[in-house]
Amino acid sequence: MADDVEAWLAGYDNPQKPLVLEIRRTILAADRRIGETIKWQTPTFVYKGNLASFQPRAKKFASLLFHTGASIAGDFPMLEGGVSVARYMRFSDLADVAAKAPDLRRIVKAWCDQRDAG
Fold first, then answer.
1. What is the DSSP code string of 40-101?
2. What is this structure's pTM?
3. Residue 1: pLDDT above 70?
4. Between the CA of residue 93 and those of 16, 21, 25, 32, 61, what are the distances in Å?
5. d(CA 3, CA 92)
């Protein structure tokens, strides 16, 4: 676990912090290749590039921005957004995180595999 991320989380005062922590745990457990750092003043998940960052100011849900989500190979209907590059995934509560965890794990694995292949 990255010390800079741990420090950021220690100071993170947001009602969605439990969701952020569970999403983080899910992503880091999904594939050992995934790392994390602080970029753009928020935790960012990385492997041979930036996968996703939290949008830390959201107060009614937890939001994860996939920087190049449109280019992740595979069918991932949980990724929302119509822009040509980025996609996002929103989580309303811990039950929603649990329900979306299998898709989140598949996204992380697909990202890592694609980075290794490319």
1. TTEEEEESSSEEEEE-TT-SSSEEEEETTGGGSSS--TT-B--SSS-EEEEE-SHHHHHHHH
2. 0.94
3. no
4. 8, 12, 15, 26, 7
5. 27
For 58, residues 6+ apart whose C-beta sits below 8 A from its C-beta are 14, 16
**Which CATH class for the 3-117 domain?**
alpha beta
Using CA atoms, how far apart are residues 31 and 29, in angstroms rounded to an integer? 6
Place 16 in a pLDDT band, splitting at 50, 70 and 90.
Answer: very high
- Residue 76 and residue 70: Cα distance in Å, rounded? 10
Six token digits for residue 80: 């929302």
Instruction: To the nearest 10°, report the CA torsion of 26, 22, 71, 65.
Output: -160
Q: Is the distance from CB of 95 to CB of 18 less than 8 angstroms?
A: no
- What's the CA gap between 4 and 31, in Å, rounded? 20
Per-residue pLDDT of 47-100, as tens digits, reads 999 999 999 998 999 999 999 999 998 889 899 987 688 999 999 999 999 999
